[in-house]
């Protein structure tokens, strides 16, 4: 008796309420975080061991580099165990002209804020590595380090932006801060390095170039991941993992081996009776 009658227009019994979407870490992301934790830990041990092999006056690059991977080890431990992460909440409203129904979707995406704490401490230390290698002046070092801290903190605000205007507003300002860093390295850094010996200026050119290429990939990953939400949380974790391993341990081993070799060459040069002081 209650079967559908053709004269009664169908009324939806459930009016769709706001829907919720959760974007969070999966198995591949979790494994990646643990793998990078182990890589950072082993690198820290290696850098610390290398530091003890050189006299204390020549340890500055070893100490900087070991500190960088120490912070990364701690941050990856936090992320791998589910610490240092929160959900960023954004509301997406869509109006569907054909149905006249507006839909509201609440998107909750995991943001690993531990990364930003890590970057706010480690990227200044990476810049100090480059600045000391080049022999940059104090004013330039101050500018590059402060611009870097501003960049990372604005990136953190952008990641938790409530709407597109906020998110991309912070992102744009962070990119300007990044341009200040690029300028300082390419102009002040290179000028300072050119005034040093040939092998140091060559090393600065190659390791500085490597740094600029890698660092430029971070805002790109951010833009596709946290920004446009086109990358899954796992894909984002894996992308940053590759970049982090290149920017910290690989950068560190390269710098320490190349610089130690340079110092040895220069000292050999001076000790062969050509006079002067081979201070590097
Ligand atoms: C953010 C988003 C906002 C715009 C810009 C960014 C740049 C980040 C960079 C990070 C570098 C990290 C490194 C980590 C080492 O392990 C914050 C992603 C410009 C350059 C080198």
Can you give the mean pLDDT? 91
Counting structural domains, the number is 1
- Give the spatial strand order of the biggest sheet: 1-3-2
Regarding quaternary structure, what we see is single chain
Ends apart, CA distance between termini: 95 Å
Q: Roughly what fraction of the amino acids lie in strands?
A: 5-15%
List of distinct ligands in this structure: retinal
Describe the sheet with the most strands: 3 strands, mixed
In the CATH hierarchy, the third-tier topology is known as: Rhopdopsin 7-helix transmembrane proteins
List segments where confidence is low: pLDDT < 50 over at least 5 consecutive residues: 272-280
Alpha carbon gyration radius: 25 Å
Instruction: Choose one word for the global shape.
Output: elongated
Order of helices and strands: EHHEEHHHHH
Helices and strands: which structural class?
mainly alpha
Number of strands: 3
> Which homologous superfamily in CATH is the superfamily?
Rhodopsin 7-helix transmembrane proteins
CATH class: Mainly Alpha
- Total helix count? 7
CATH architectural group: Up-down Bundle
In which range does the helix fraction lie? 55-70%
Describe what you observe in this structure:
The protein contains seven helices and three strands. It has a single domain (19-261), classed as Rhodopsin 7-helix transmembrane proteins (Rhopdopsin 7-helix transmembrane proteins), CATH 1.20.1070.10. Helices cover 69% and strands 10% of the residues. It is elongated. The termini are far apart. By secondary structure, it is mostly helical. Strands 1-3-2 form a three-stranded mixed sheet, with no helix packed on it. It binds retinal. The site of retinal (RET) has 19 residues, from helix 3, helix 4, helix 5, helix 6 and helix 7. Retinal (RET) binds at residues 119, 122-123, 126, 151-152, 155, 158, 171, 174-175, 178, 215, 218-219, 222, 244, 247-248.
